[in-house]
Design a protein that fits this description.
By secondary structure, this protein is mainly beta. It has five helices and 24 strands.
Amino acid sequence: MTPQEMEKRIVRYGDLMPCKTAFIDAHTPGSDQKENFTIIGGGVSESPDQHVHIGIPHGFNIGAAGQPPKCRNSLHSHRTAEVFFVLKGRWRFFWGRYGDAGEILLEEGDIINIPTGIFRGFENVGTDYGMIMAVLGGDDAGGGVIWAPQVIEDAKDHGLVLGDNGSLYDTKKGAVLPDGVKPMPLLTEEELKSYPEPTTAEVTPHYVARYWDLMSLADRKPAKVIGENGKLKDKPGFEVDFITRGSASEAMHSHDKPSVLMPMRGHWCVEWEGGRATLAPGDTMSMPENISHRAMPSMSGEASLYHVIATDDAAGATWKE
């Protein structure tokens, strides 16, 4: 594959195209300044304005959320895994029917595999614009977003209505629901009983990994972060590895599925049969299947990278031992 062909599979941080109307809370005060990015796959955006950078199916989706300080993403749930690592800033993740069942603060490089089937939200509690990178299970990301009832009700007061077809309609711009499309029904009290309310103590040990712990674990060999034998034991349809300068291999290798390289710190030189490219933090690279390649830090200093690849496991609910 030529460098020109491969460049089409690299999304540079500076080239990311945000959507500010991706979800139903886009006009709700407190959430109306967030930016959503769909980097690989169709994502879960409810807006036709969402730009997809790389549409090639990988068995999972890669996205991102950028938010200024004090901006939050409203409570929602997914049927498949939702994994975040903090690229920039300081973030609070919270969960539960009303967001008060538990919470945790994540710093740059920390990663969280939010348990499937609980309502979750997150906000930038830092002092500058922050960015979190996301991996969503499945090519269709579980069929979309399930919103806590109050989120849908609040959004209606600010002009956004979600149809039962999964699309958003802005009534302040004169949009109306098409014939045959009804408003998305609210979850009933009986349905809401099936959404767990785990405590922080229950979530933290099994679903959160700290950056500096991973740096230590990956000092000599790549650390399995998410996987059946990972630090965070799960089988969500993909695996996540963490690689540092000390564990980067000079050996060329390939995978039978597309893989994704996402630098956290430092610049990384990726070489393949046909060329090379340099990645910086915030860049995302899709490596095609069956192409020999390697990734090595290209400069001195701290270097770390997240690697994602699909598995043959179903992209379903969170797996537990």
